[in-house]
């Protein structure tokens, strides 16, 4: 009951906020005015903010910016010993620094380190938190470029990457992050520059309890669908997520921008119902997966397991099964990867559910920006088949889906399964792998599959139970994150370019409407079918074998 | 702008209800196409189709393993994989075979011709038809075959074009004007003409037709390419999924054989659509050819499905070719019978369709004889001329005339009579209603009398309103093109239910209209036959030239209708749509099939190591071997089963996009999920009886 109440409050809050926030974001990305602080940035990086870019220039901006970000983040970690607030933690070792640099720039926030003992506050604040903002803003920018592709016609200009990046950060992420950081602090989330406090516990032993500037990072960790915790226990840690209210607020923050972006999309294409069509697909899949995971955790195998409280293993009592399932479903559905419970302890079905959420390709509702563009790409695939079935050259939102568009969409949906399956396939083949797994048999494979699923989909959540610090894991997961992020981005920008170059086809009664009920049904089916057909073999030997046992 | 020929549209198109009929598929074609299908097993041919190439490689691989380690299961799987490739080839071969048969007929008609070439000095020399070059002048006389495509520069002749059109009625071709083009291979029946050759040998109309129906130079259309990309993507995804299954299987302690993995891969990749894709394309062209329409490219056929604006010539398409008398309006003291009698008399000798229609109307409404009586035949007929603009008869001192209002009024005045204001009012009213008034007058005993007015109207063909409503529901706007004044045009437009009209249309207006529509993103289709239609035909997205038209028109359009029937444009649109729908529906079916195959094969592969996976064996397949083999057999047989559908095209009824999609999703999506469950289960019942499998 309390669980349903949480879901109700969450949905009500999202319903209330998505309109004003969505419309606000639409204004942010269409406004012709520049704020003073933005002008300073443009002057500093020598960009003419009123000059729009070709898709290739836009893509070069994204690539260049990501590359520089990775190098800088790597250097900051390696030079930790000369930075303040390092608490003597020393330079981060190269493998971790490489993996972490990619991880945070790719909006994945896969963490192959223990923050409390590896990262000092400067690296956290100057390196990781900065990327938490910027990587989310990159996602927003790419999504906006794609939306412009649909909105504009006969142009090769998609907007200016630097302007989109700056506005996304300055006008959307920073103010919201500030506001909610204050709220979280008020509700008991820690915000401290001290290394920690030393206490003597009741058994007489002395303990060091780590402190950190948690609230400021916590909020963008959720809001930017990043997920990298400042403490190892992530949102299960009482200093990051002290109570039921902060838990609900954090779940809200995970979902708020991806959900509101559908409204932004609808507003920008001039038909809000187009946005609601996408939102309904996201909502249905999110709701269905929530039901599956929640049910699976509330009904562990057999009455004995139920009595023993097997469903609560790995979950915090202050959140309970409902608060944990809600968080787990939302964090895997948004490419966030923050966790407030250990997904490794979930039942076969529940754990498989979190995995399937990611395998959908992170679009239920997906990450900041990435969720929208992934769903739009899937809509293009669905509309291609649907268009043929109504006897016309397929089109979506007045743009024809020809060879170029289908190729770009195909590359986008091909990238993730390719890096995921290759990475996981090779990993399980390597003779040393079983030594890094906490379990053998199907659950061992689930652990490997989860890791590569999380990395390739830029989720970042960990199944735990697998040790990923070996050079193979650090580098292969790093590359999965990098390619899983950048290949779709490049393909999406190419897609945006060819869409923008087209003229708009007016719609007639021969055009398939993408508003009513039929299109969302078709799109939902496509998302599920593509993921299912691709991953059923891999899932069969892991979660499915576990769930049916 | 010329619009139509006098030749009535062939019955089969006039009577057609607008549905695309089923092409005839004879199962014997499968047998006769077998040699071609076997020839297509060559890898050079296979590599063109990425999906089937993967199957081909899988077949080779499994054959190698079957030879290395022969057992019943391995051999059976290898055999059925080859059948899968063969069936795909068969689909293509059958489709091509139907085209080849048509090409053969054409080729038989294309005899070796001898040409009488005119030298510049006027002397004639006899040369083989193949040695003619562009610009050569040749003489053709009655009974001779025209040696090449060209324009008549001198003379007039009746020509038998049945070799091309299948239409036995001869047509008239003459120099100058819009009926000057002749096609090589057709026969001159009367008179003598001089033709200037306009194509090189081997590039004539017939040669192009042969190449088209044979599909020899068939290029993939844009939608086909996009679909192939999507199918290749799916193939890559499944290749990865199957390739990575082996390491996982090894981790789980149950290494799989190459045969089983190959079988799984072949079952998963979209072989059904991959196998039928080119057959669908060839069959689409074929359906056009069956309706006597030749498209210069598959691209044009696809574009026809996308058309959103149809430009239809009023005359011949929307209305019958000629105006007809529809009403008799007596004026003054004359009665309707007086008028009818006079009108009939004046039209008896008038051979024009308008004149005949007046006689028919009088016969129908007033019971007057439809033929001239002997006494009447003695009268002196006054033919219509451009100067008098009247026709009539002088009989026993009666002078009867009918004609344009102003001309008849002037005649009445000449004869010392007076034309009443009432006549003027009726004439104005009839004109205002979009019809043409003919005034009928008579001089009886020296006194001229105006009997009244005959209303000549365009008669809209039956069922046009329904047809346009159907088109509207398909999202296609119809625009009527006419040389009439706006008033007349509006009246016809209202009556026929057409969406819009362009009145007093000049070729420039038509061109401007097409440009304007295309600016707005609409795709335009039109028909035309005159030389002055050529630019508009070239500009439109789908330009259907009438075979009766000029060479320029035929060169400019991207389709030629051999029946010269402008209404066929509507059918062409439907064929284009049906082609795309067939591709989309079979792709959906193909992908939806995979679910059942997973339920068959995955438990078969892994129930040994994870017994709980046997719960997924919901079809209750006998053994792992029978399950896998049944899936492979189903996968192959479904190709054969769908060949008739691919050739015929899926059922298409004009309706809204939403309704179409809903129907096709249920039939091919839901049907595609359920069919293989039943099919594999049934096949397994048989396969399990094979020793070594069951």
UniProtKB/TrEMBL annotation, chain A:
The chain crosses the membrane at residues 58-76, 133-151, 172-193, 248-269, 276-296, 372-394, 406-430, 482-501, 522-545. It is a multi-pass membrane protein. Pfam families: KdpA. Keywords: Cell membrane, Ion transport, Membrane, Potassium, Potassium transport, Transmembrane, Transmembrane helix, Transport. It is found in: Cell membrane. GO terms for molecular function: P-type potassium transmembrane transporter activity; potassium ion binding. One of its GO terms (cellular component) is plasma membrane. HAMAP family: KdpA. The system is composed of three essential subunits: KdpA, KdpB and KdpC. Belongs to the KdpA family. Part of the high-affinity ATP-driven potassium transport (or Kdp) system, which catalyzes the hydrolysis of ATP coupled with the electrogenic transport of potassium into the cytoplasm. This subunit binds the extracellular potassium ions and delivers the ions to the membrane domain of KdpB through an intramembrane tunnel. This is Potassium-transporting ATPase potassium-binding subunit.
UniProtKB/TrEMBL annotation, chain B:
The system is composed of three essential subunits: KdpA, KdpB and KdpC. It catalyses: K(+)(out) + ATP + H2O = K(+)(in) + ADP + phosphate + H(+). It is found in: Cell membrane. SUPFAM superfamilies: Calcium ATPase, transduction domain A, Calcium ATPase, transmembrane domain M, HAD-like, Metal cation-transporting ATPase, ATP-binding domain N. Keywords: ATP-binding, Cell membrane, Ion transport, Magnesium, Membrane, Metal-binding, Nucleotide-binding, Phosphoprotein, Potassium, Potassium transport, Translocase, Transmembrane, Transmembrane helix, Transport. The active site is at residue 313. This is Potassium-transporting ATPase ATP-binding subunit. Its main location: membrane. Part of the high-affinity ATP-driven potassium transport (or Kdp) system, which catalyzes the hydrolysis of ATP coupled with the electrogenic transport of potassium into the cytoplasm. This subunit is responsible for energy coupling to the transport system and for the release of the potassium ions to the cytoplasm. The chain crosses the membrane at residues 49-67, 73-91, 225-246, 258-282, 595-613, 625-645, 665-683. Belongs to the cation transport ATPase (P-type) (TC 3.A.3) family. Type IA subfamily. InterPro entries: ATPase_P-typ_cyto_dom_N (IPR023299), ATPase_P-typ_P_site (IPR018303), ATPase_P-typ_TM_dom_sf (IPR023298), ATPase_P-typ_transduc_dom_A_sf (IPR008250), ATPase_P-type_domA (IPR059000), HAD-like_sf (IPR036412), HAD_sf (IPR023214), P-type_ATPase_bsu_IA (IPR006391). Its EC number is 7.2.2.6.
């Amino acid at each position: 009951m309390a669980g349903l109440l949480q879901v109700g409050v969450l949905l009500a809050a999202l319903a209330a906020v998505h309109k004003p926030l969505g419309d606000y974001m639409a204004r942010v990305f269409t406004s012709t005015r520049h704020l003073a602080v933005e002008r300073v940035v443009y002057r500093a990086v020598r960009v003419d903010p009123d000059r729009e870019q070709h898709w290739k220039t836009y893509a070069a901006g994204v690539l260049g910016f990501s590359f520089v970000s990775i190098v800088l983040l790597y250097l900051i970690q390696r030079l930790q010993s000369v930075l303040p607030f390092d608490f003597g933690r020393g330079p981060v070792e190269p493998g971790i620094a490489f993996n972490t640099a990619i991880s945070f720039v790719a909006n994945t926030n896969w963490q192959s380190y223990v923050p409390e003992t590896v990262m000092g506050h400067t690296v956290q604040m100057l390196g990781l938190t900065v990327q938490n903002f910027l990587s989310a803003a990159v996602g927003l920018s790419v999504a906006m470029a794609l939306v412009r592709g649909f909105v504009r016609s006969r142009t090769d200009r998609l907007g200016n990457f630097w302007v989109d990046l700056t506005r996304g950060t300055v006008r959307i992420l920073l103010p919201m992050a500030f506001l909610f950081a204050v709220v979280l602090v008020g509700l008991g989330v820690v915000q401290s520059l001290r290394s920690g406090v030393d206490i003597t516990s009741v058994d007489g032993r002395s303990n060091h309890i780590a402190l950190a500037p948690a609230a400021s990072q916590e909020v963008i960790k959720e809001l930017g669908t990043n997920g990298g915790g400042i403490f190892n226990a992530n949102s299960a840690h009482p200093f990051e997520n002290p109570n039921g209210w902060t838990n609900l607020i954090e779940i809200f923050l995970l979902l708020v921008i991806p959900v509101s972006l559908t409204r932004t999309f609808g507003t920008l294409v001039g038909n809000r119902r187009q946005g609601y069509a996408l939102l309904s697909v996201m909502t249905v899949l999110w709701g269905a997966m929530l039901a599956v995971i929640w049910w699976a955790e509330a009904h562990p195998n057999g009455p004995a397991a139920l009595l023993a409280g097997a469903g609560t293993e790995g979950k915090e009592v202050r959140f309970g099964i409902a608060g944990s399932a809600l968080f787990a479903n939302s964090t895997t559905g948004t490419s966030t990867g923050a966790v407030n419970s250990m997904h490794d302890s979930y039942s076969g079905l529940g754990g498989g559910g979190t995995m399937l959420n990611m395998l959908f390709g992170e679009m239920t509702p997906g990450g900041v920006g990435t969720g929208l563009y992934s769903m739009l790409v899937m809509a293009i695939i669905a509309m291609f088949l649907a268009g043929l079935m109504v006897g016309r050259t397929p089109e979506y939102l007045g743009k024809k889906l020809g060879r170029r568009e289908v190729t770009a969409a195909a590359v986008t949906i091909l990238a993730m399964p390719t890096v995921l399956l290759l990475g996981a396939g090779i990993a399980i083949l390597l003779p040393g792998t079983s030594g890094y797994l906490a379990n053998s048999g199907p659950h061992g494979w689930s652990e490997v599959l989860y890791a590569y699923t999380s990395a390739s989909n830029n989720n970042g959540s960990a199944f735990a139970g697998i040790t990923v610090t070996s050079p193979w894991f650090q580098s292969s997961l790093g590359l999965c994150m990098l390619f899983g992020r950048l290949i779709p981005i490049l393909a999406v920008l190419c897609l945006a370019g060819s869409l923008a170059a087209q003229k708009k086809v007016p719609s007639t009664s021969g055009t398939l409407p993408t508003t009513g009920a039929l299109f969302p049904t078709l799109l939902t089916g496509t998302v599920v079918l593509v993921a299912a057909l691709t991953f059923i073999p891999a899932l069969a030997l892991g979660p499915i074998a576990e769930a049916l046992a | 702008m010329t619009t139509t020929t006098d030749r009535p549209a062939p019955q089969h198109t006039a009577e057609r209800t607008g549905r695309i009929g089923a092409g005839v598929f004879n199962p014997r074609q499968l047998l006769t196409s077998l040699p071609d299908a076997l020839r297509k097993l060559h890898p050079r041919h296979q590599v063109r189709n990425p999906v089937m190439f993967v199957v081909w490689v899988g077949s080779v691989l499994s054959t190698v393993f079957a030879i290395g380690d022969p057992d019943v299961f391995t051999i059976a799987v290898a055999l059925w994989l080859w059948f899968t490739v063969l069936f795909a080839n068969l689909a293509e071969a059958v489709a091509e075979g139907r085209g080849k048969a048509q090409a053969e007929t054409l080729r038989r008609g294309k005899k070796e011709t001898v040409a009488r070439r005119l030298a510049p000095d006027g002397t004639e020399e006899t040369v083989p038809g193949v040695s003619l070059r562009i610009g050569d002048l040749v003489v053709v006389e009655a009974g001779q075959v025209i040696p090449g495509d060209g324009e008549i520069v001198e003379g007039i002749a009746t020509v038998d074009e049945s070799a091309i059109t299948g239409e036995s009625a001869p047509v008239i071709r003459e120099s100058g004007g819009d009926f000057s083009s002749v096609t090589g291979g057709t026969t001159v029946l009367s008179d003598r003409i001089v033709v200037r050759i306009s194509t090189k040998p081997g590039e004539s109309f017939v040669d192009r037709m042969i190449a088209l129906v044979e599909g020899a130079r068939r290029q993939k259309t844009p939608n086909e390419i996009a679909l192939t990309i999507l199918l290749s993507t799916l193939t890559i995804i499944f290749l990865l999924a199957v390739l990575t299954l082996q390491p996982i299987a090894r981790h789980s302690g149950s290494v799989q054989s190459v045969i089983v993995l190959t079988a799984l891969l072949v079952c998963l990749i979209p072989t059904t659509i991959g196998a039928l894709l080119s057959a669908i394309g060839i069959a689409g062209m074929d359906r056009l050819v069956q309706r006597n329409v030749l498209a210069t490219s598959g691209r044009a056929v696809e574009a026809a499905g996308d058309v959103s604006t149809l430009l239809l010539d009023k005359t011949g398409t929307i209305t019958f070719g000629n105006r007809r008398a529809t009403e008799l309006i007596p004026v003054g003291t004359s009665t309707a019978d007086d008028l009818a009698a006079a009108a009939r008399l004046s039209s008896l000798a008038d051979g024009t369709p308008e004149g005949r229609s007046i006689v028919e109307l009088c016969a129908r409404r007033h019971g007057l004889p439809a033929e001239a009586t002997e006494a009447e035949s003695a009268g002196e007929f006054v033919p219509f001329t451009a100067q008098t603009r009247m026709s009539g008869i002088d009989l026993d001192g009666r002078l009867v005339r009918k004609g344009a209002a102003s001309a008849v009024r002037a005649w009445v005045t000449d004869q010392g009579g007076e034309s009443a204001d009432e006549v003027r009012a009726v004439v104005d009213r009839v004109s205002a209603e979009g019809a043409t008034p003919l005034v009928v007058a008579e001089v009886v005993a020296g006194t001229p009398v105006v009997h009244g007015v005959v209303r000549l109207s365009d008669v809209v063909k039956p069922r046009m309103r329904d047809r346009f409503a159907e088109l509207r529901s398909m999202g296609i706007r119809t625009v009527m093109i006419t040389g009439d004044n706006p008033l007349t045009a509006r009246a016809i437009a209202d009556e026929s239910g057409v969406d819009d009209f362009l009145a007093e249309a000049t070729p420039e207006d038509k061109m401007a209209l097409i440009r304007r529509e295309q600016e707005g993103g609409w795709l335009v289709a039109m028909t035309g036959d005159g030389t002055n239609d050529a630019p508009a035909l070239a500009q439109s997205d789908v330009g259907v030239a009438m075979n009766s038209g000029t060479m320029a028109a035929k060169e400019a359009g991207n389709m030629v209708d051999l029946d010269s029937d402008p209404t066929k444009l509507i059918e062409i649109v439907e064929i284009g749509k049906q082609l795309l729908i067939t591709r989309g529906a079979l792709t959906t079916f193909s992908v939806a099939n995979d679910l059942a195959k997973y339920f068959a094969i995955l438990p078969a592969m892994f129930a040994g190591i994870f017994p709980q996976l046997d719960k997924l064996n919901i079809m209750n397949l006998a053994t792992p071997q029978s399950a896998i083999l049944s899936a492979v057999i189903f996968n192959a047989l479904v190709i054969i089963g769908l060949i008739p559908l691919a050739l015929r095209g899926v059922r298409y009824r004009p309706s809204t996009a939403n309704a179409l999609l809903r129907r096709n999703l249920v039939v091919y999506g839901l049907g595609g999920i359920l069919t293989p469950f039943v099919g594999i289960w049934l096949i397994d019942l048989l396969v399990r009886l094979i020793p070594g499998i069951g």
